[in-house]
Design goal:
Elements: E1 2-4, E2 7-9, H1 11-17, E3 26-31, E4 41-46, E5 51-56, E6 62-68, E7 71-72, E8 105-108, E9 117-120, E10 131-134, E11 146-155, E12 158-170, E13 176-186, E14 191-200, E15 206-208, E16 211-216, E17 226-228, E18 231-237, E19 264-270, E20 277-284, E21 289-296, E22 302-308, E23 315-321, H2 327-333, E24 338-340, E25 345-356, H3 358-369
Antiparallel strand pairs: 1-2, 3-4, 4-5, 5-6, 6-7, 8-16, 9-10, 11-12, 12-13, 13-14, 14-25, 15-24, 16-23, 17-20, 18-19, 19-22, 20-21, 21-25, 22-23
């Protein structure tokens, strides 16, 4: 049954109350038409609960807008949802990615995440190519997808909104990695379900790294908003040492926008349930709104918290990752880099959940604290113990 407007409705009921499901919910394809966003295809999802989100077909099927009853969830940076044809991957010493960085979900990968790096290219067996240069967070987020389908699918009296496509990151004498992404949302719910498969379509043994840069903005992020996570260890803080308290921002309770704020990044070790899943959330108790990220820890063993509290760019990132925050070089050195042979793949199943009201927030907090109670101290001392990641190849 579909839960709409305070009642449960069968498929027949829904059909009887309107000439088309699109009156209540649906998926439609449109194209942005102005400025740096001109020409970007976008799918708009509406679940009938007030949840609306958009998927950028020409930006790796990443999630751009996200709102509930007109209240923003996802982050919009000053860059806009820039057309990939304007992107200069190699620019600014690898930092040009920041000129195309915006939205609720920005995918990082498929062969590199985190800061810039240069790795040996011997695995591609091509003499003139001595090394592979990576920008910050990799190439995939600015590659257009081939849209293979979208629409509404009924199963009895339940209706699922969906889209699917393929994003191909490839080069001659280089990688040929395919991201096959399916996004679903059930009518009458406040959840976005993402199923990703990253497949090595090529015949070179190829490295793979993956991370979701999930960015929550105002008003979910506001002065007094709380970060919830089942933390068993604060592994690392990029600002640790003498400057740990300099900006007077701990990991738990968020302030309002600040001027001249330098980003802060934390890595947390999280507990899991019996099903191997774990989740983190940002909640605004005053407004009764929150956002939760639910992942399989075997797929994403690491979790980062990114604090970009700079005025005019105000965001908090919830970032599940295949690898530690120390990046590509560390992963290679420790033997933790994932290698994919031809036809091998990695799968990622993630749920993004909008928390509407005090009861939904309380249920999420109970889920999270039931796994582990996070440190009460705003500035817990990082252990710097990056646990070995096994089974990477």
């Amino acid at each position: 049954m579909v839960a709409l407007y305070g009642r449960t409705m069968s498929r027949r009921d829904v059909a009887a109350h309107a000439g088309s499901l699109s009156q209540f919910a649906g998926v439609r394809l449109m194209t942005l038409g102005d400025g740096v966003e001109r020409g970007v295809r976008m799918l708009e999802f509406r679940t009938g609960t007030g949840l609306r989100f958009t998927v950028l077909v020409d930006r790796a099927l990443d999630v751009a807008d996200c709102e509930l009853n007109g209240m923003a969830i996802g982050w919009h940076s000053p860059t806009g949802f820039r057309h990939p044809g304007l992107h200069e991957y190699e620019g600014e010493g690898g930092l040009a990615w920041l000129r195309s960085f915006s939205g609720l979900l920005v995918t990082c990968g498929l062969d590199h995440i985190l800061f810039m790096d240069e790795e040996p290219a011997g695995h591609f067996v091509y003499g003139p190519r001595k090394s592979v240069s990576h920008s910050i967070h990799g190439r995939v987020s600015t590659i257009p997808a081939r849209l293979t389908g979208y629409g509404e699918q009924w199963d009895g009296d339940a209706c699922t909104l969906w889209c699917e496509g393929i994003v191909q990151q490839a080069a001659v004498f280089g990688e040929d990695l395919h991201l096959i992404r399916r996004i679903e949302a059930i009518v009458g719910t406040n959840e976005i379900r993402i199923r990703d498969r990253v497949v090595n379509h090529g015949f070179y043994r190829t490295p793979h790294m993956y991370c979701y840069h999930i960015n929550v903005g105002h008003p979910v992020l506001a002065e007094g908003s709380r970060y919830l996570a089942p933390i068993t260890d604060v592994v690392w803080a990029g600002h640790a040492g003498e400057s740990y308290r300099k900006q007077q921002v701990g990991y738990r309770t968020l302030p309002g926008p600040k001027e001249n704020f330098h980003e802060q990044v934390w890595q947390h070790e999280l507990a899991t349930g019996r099903d191997g899943r774990t989740s983190v959330a940002l909640v605004n108790d005053g407004l009764g709104i929150g956002f939760e990220v639910d992942v399989d820890k075997e797929q994403f063993p690491c979790m980062f918290e990114w604090q970009n509290l700079q005025a005019g760019q105000y965001a908090l990132g919830l970032e599940p990752s295949t690898n530690h925050v120390l990046g590509h070089g560390y992963a290679r050195e420790k033997g933790e880099l994932i290698w994919l042979e031809h036809g091998q793949e990695r799968t990622y199943d993630t749920v993004l959940r909008v928390l509407d009201g005090k009861d939904a927030i309380a249920a999420a907090e109970q889920r999270i604290t039931g796994l582990a109670v996070q440190p009460a101290e705003d500035y817990p001392e990082p252990s710097n113990e990056h646990r070995p990641l096994r089974g990477r190849s």
